[in-house]
Amino acid sequence: xxxxxxxxxxxxxxxxxxxxxxxxxxxxxxxxxxxxxxxxxxxxxxxxxxxxxxxxxxxxxxxxxxxxxxxxxxxxxxxxxxxxxxxxxxxxxxxxxxxxxxxxxxxxxxxxxxxxxxxxxxxxxxxxxxxxxxxxxxxxxxxxxxxxxxxxxxxxxxxxxxxxxxxxxxxxxxxxxxxxxxxxxxxxxxxxxxxxxxxxxxxxxxxxxxxxxxxxxxxxxxxxxxxxxxxxxxxxxxxxxxxxxxxxxxxxxxxxxxxxxxxxxxxxxxxxxxxxxxxxxxxxxxxxxxxxxxxxxxxxxxxxxxxxxx
Length: 310
Ligand code: CO
Ligand code: CO
Description:
By secondary structure, the chain is an alpha+beta fold. The chain has ten helices and twelve strands.
């Protein structure tokens, strides 16, 4: 066993031979968009994301599906399945089986296996002082989703977050490997600060973040300004408060956004500054958001684990 749950890593890793290890993860959730095809695609992209975050290549997946058995709904489930199949095939991943359970509230996702060289695993303990932090998707899908459910979001914003959530982190992962990143994690349910904390704790480092350089969806900023956010986001604020110190002038809107629970968010990449510029260029050439949002230092008991500047 090379990586287990003790550092809250994105996936578990098991060595099969001297030069080969299996990377394993599972993710499934209830519908987050109305469009059944896109729900399937997002569930697939999200479940692959943990493998990409470890620096691994996903190869096979097993489907987990919990659906109500009302025959009138079968066409919907077929579309959910198709969205997942198409996204997995875009990623070059074979779906080799799965399991279905009757359930009143639908749930859908995948268990994924990837492969990696045992010495190249980007686990949570590998961030290093001097690293810069780079984020590859804007933040705010949780807040915008809540806005959609309450009828407060525009159709344009729904389309924008759907596209972002369905986008694979594959290319970002390939480019960060080429550039020689120290490590990475993907931003999901615990929000930007929660997932950052997991890496900092495992690496015994601290971070200074510039709130103004974090990319947000415009609609998320607008909704956060009206104090609209999911319960998970508010829970994150409370759970990670002990690790965070906010500079004067950082607004409550920023607190909501930086803690917003994400579905299929981007990679948060830790990389030495002399490599960061090349990576940023390469990501942007591929049309990927590549925002430098902060810096990493050695942990210091006199300093907060995460300091948020304006
Ligand atoms: Co993850
Ligand atoms: Co996960």
